[in-house]
Design a protein that fits this description.
By secondary structure, the protein is an alpha/beta fold. The protein has 2 domains: about 210 residues, NAD(P)-binding Rossmann-like Domain (Rossmann fold, 3-Layer(aba) Sandwich), CATH 3.40.50; about 40 residues, no CATH class. Helix 1 packs across helix 8. The termini are far apart. The relative contact order is 0.14. The protein binds nicotinamide-adenine-dinucleotide. The site of nicotinamide-adenine-dinucleotide (NAD) has 30 residues, from helix 1, helix 4 and helix 6.
Length: about 260
């Protein structure tokens, strides 16, 4: 229970990696502000399950993180319901796959807003209070695509490279205030975001889903297994603990050897 008494805001935590992170932080006693879209009843089930299982306060805010004013409202609501944000995890993200010439302008704008600008607005909003309290942890969920590129992912690769840059600036500016900021750069994680890409690949190449999954891994991820949301959650708990206290400004690969190639 290393985070008992602390409050975490995890964007995009109604699904996939963000939900895994919420479980890991709640298991350490952290109060959680969930964020993200989905069916209202299902989100309430997630909220209640976390609260009952770990005996922590859990709330949900439906802010669309592409809207700065909704981000500010979510942070104000977190403070009033759960207390100041001690741990901020910028995780919400979307993907769109198309070559640059066919990349829709509105998809580009949405990816930059959700995968990059949102982290600027949340960070800007929480830093003053973290500084006053002399402690804070900011973790940005980037990607192997924050460090290397793939074709057909212009918006995503640009946003994630930007997020790694924002991580470094935040780390430097906050270093004197007991605040660390790191990026985690996962390779493939089996979540709805990737399941959609697997389904598209299966359709394009007329493959069974299991074969499409195996091919996806073989192309980039030498270990041939998916990183899990639980492993990413455990890394964040480490970064929040004493042993992670001097790690800042890092881009931490959890990618089965993807960027080693
Ligand atoms: P996911 O689709 O399962 O979950 C995305 C979450 O973000 C959901 O809760 C969704 O409701 C929320 N969301 C989407 N748009 C939002 C918006 N405008 N405002 C608020 N919430 C919004 O995806 P995931 O795979 O769990 O991805 C989470 C993060 O991890 C993303 O930033 C993604 O780029 C990154 N990532 C994923 C993988 C992977 O292989 N799955 C690999 C590297 C990095």
């Amino acid at each position: 229970m290393s985070l008992r008494g602390k409050t975490a805001l995890v964007t995009g935590s109604t699904s996939g990696i963000g939900l895994g992170i919420a479980h890991a932080l709640a298991a350490e006693g952290c109060a959680i502000m969930l964020n993200g879209f989905g069916d209202t009843k299902e989100i309430e089930t997630i909220r209640r399950d976390l609260a009952n299982r770990y005996e922590v306060k859990v709330a949900h805010h439906p802010a669309d993180v592409s809207k700065p004013e909704q981000i500010r409202a979510m942070i104000a609501d977190t403070v009033s319901q759960l207390g100041p944000v001690d741990v901020l995890v910028n995780n919400a993200g979307i993907q769109h796959v198309a070559p640059i010439e066919q990349f829709p302008d509105d998809k580009w704008d949405a990816i930059i807003a959700i995968n990059l600008s949102a982290a600027f607005h949340t960070t800007k909003a929480v830093l003053p209070t973290m500084r006053n309290r002399g402690w804070g942890r900011i973790v940005n969920i980037a990607s192997a695509h924050g460090l290397v590129a793939s074709e057909d992912k212009a918006g995503y690769v640009a946003a994630k490279h930007g997020l790694v840059g924002l991580t470094k600036v935040t780390a430097l500016e906050a270093a004197s205030s007991g605040i660390t900021c790191n990026a985690i750069c996962p390779g493939w994680v089996l979540t709805p975001l990737v399941e959609r890409q697997i389904a598209a690949r299966a359709g394009d190449f007329k493959l069974a889903i299991e074969q499409a999954k195996a091919d996806l891994l073989k192309e980039k991820q030498k270990l041939l297994s998916f990183t899990t949301p639980e492993q990413i959650g455990a890394m964040i708990v480490f970064l929040c603990g004493e042993n992670g206290a001097t790690m800042t400004g890092a881009a931490l690969s959890m990618d089965g050897g993807w960027v080693a190639q």
